[in-house]
Amino acid sequence: MNPQDDEFEELITPKPMGACLESGVLSDDGERQHLLTLGSASDTDAPVVWKEKTKIMVFSNFMTCSSLVAGTYYYTALLPAFESDDKLDWTEATSTHMNIAAQAAETLGLFLAGPLADYFLASTLLSFHAAIASVVMICVALCSRPPIILAITCMVMFTKGMMWPSVGNVIAANIPPNQQDTSFLVACLASRSGDTLYAIFFGILMGSYNWQWRHAVTALVAVLIPIYVILFGYVFPKDLLQPHGGEPSVGGWCLKWKRMLSDPDGWLAFFTLAGTYGCWALAPYVSVLFVDVYHVTPGEAAGGTAFMTMGMVAGLLWGSLVASIGGVTVGRTMNVIQGVAGILALQTLATWDDATFNQALYLQGLVGFGFVVPAYLPYLAYSAASPPAERAFRLASLDGAGSILCIILMSVYGQIRQKETGRDAARKLYSYTAVGLSVGVISMAILYSRLGKKAAEARRTASSH
């Protein structure tokens, strides 16, 4: 092992309480001591007092996630326009290739680019992704060759892998523990909001005003670039504490993998995340299942998919509200209850053969309400509780592994639908997804219990010193 690896192993090994802040870099216990003394309380279930700096940080994270998601995933709303553009040789097969390649690029970005947040400032990485996204949008608006559009889209999807590890590091290192769950859920809500905003934006310009898709993309980038400039130039806090992973090295990277794979909490976080990815894999098939089972029109089926999205937004709002008012323990207990509600909704969809289309829509909304918090918060909370030098690596690696599983599940679900009739296929898909979510919720409950005990022990140690 070379000297750099020795330094890294020393850095990620827990140190005695009282380690000090040096050059903006905090050790594991030193940073925990710093966070526990922020604000007026050290107890994660104490009343939450939101300081002005924390509010600005949460707002900047919200704007960061929503604007970067809008500037990254906008292409998904344009695929029908690509296919109908006579000047663009774009087919249904090209759309399929685009979806697969983009998902693969984002997964690769999580594994390779995501861990960079352990070494570089979050603002640097996020502004770099914003710049790449802006350039790519301009190129897409000007380009007429599908292979080029696909290639540059994959490039921005790769850099998007840095977003969640960077945002997770900012929250974990700079926001007190009793405010982190709320902050994470607000950032997740921003991500879902970004998905909605570009769809509404294109819907108005292209649907109501009959704009060409190229003009709509140009308008979107014209809106986003000033937001990025203001956000990263003036709003995003400049004096954030940034945990540092030392100098990048292969040995250090291997040590991170070894430590995470030997951590029971890491496996619980993975099983929680994996259990929810059945719901993500199910989402693209919801509209066709509506047509197969309830024999509605394609337009009605497409509109029905909004119920799961609305349920997800409601779930994130409710989760953040409960965590903010009731504290960490109450909030995480509600997370488990939400997950159970999602399981019951999935099982009802699988077994209730006489349900009407409207009843199925409300159940889909309950599925979104139930699974969305387990899909985000547990692995974000786990990474926040990890050693500072490993947070981004663990978050990105878990997310990347989950993305691979999602691709596999989407393929399996597609094969089931092809081989089975409408009702039989729906019954299997909903049942399998319910089983997966059950595993996720049980793992989440155990993980929350273990993290709570570790946090209580850390508070006792801090108070004794």
Explain this structure to me?
- The protein has 465 residues and is mainly α.
- The chain has two domains: 25-238, Growth Hormone, Chain: A (Up-down Bundle); 259-465, Growth Hormone, Chain: A, CATH 1.20.1250.
- The protein is 78% helix and 0% strand.
- The chain contains 19 helices and no strands.
- Helix 6 runs antiparallel to helix 10 (213-235), helix 12 packs parallel to helix 18 (391-419) and helix 17 packs parallel to helix 19.
- The two termini are 35 Å apart.
- The relative contact order is 0.14.
Helix-strand layout with pairing:
Layout: H1 3-12, H2 28-36, H3 52-73, H4 79-84, H5 92-112, H6 122-142, H7 146-160, H8 163-174, H9 177-208, H10 213-235, H11 250-261, H12 264-282, H13 286-294, H14 298-304, H15 306-326, H16 328-351, H17 357-384, H18 391-419, H19 422-464
Helix pairs in contact: 1-11, 3-6, 3-7, 3-8, 3-9, 3-10, 5-7, 5-18, 6-7, 6-8, 6-10, 8-9, 8-17, 8-18, 9-10, 9-15, 9-17, 12-17, 12-18, 12-19, 13-14, 13-19, 15-16, 15-17, 16-17, 16-19, 17-18, 17-19, 18-19
Task: Write a short abstract of this structure.
The protein is mainly α.
Rg, rounded, reads 22 Å
User: How many H/I helical runs?
Assistant: 19
CATH superfamily of the largest domain: MFS general substrate transporter like domains
CATH class group of the largest domain: Mainly Alpha
Helix proportion range: over 70%
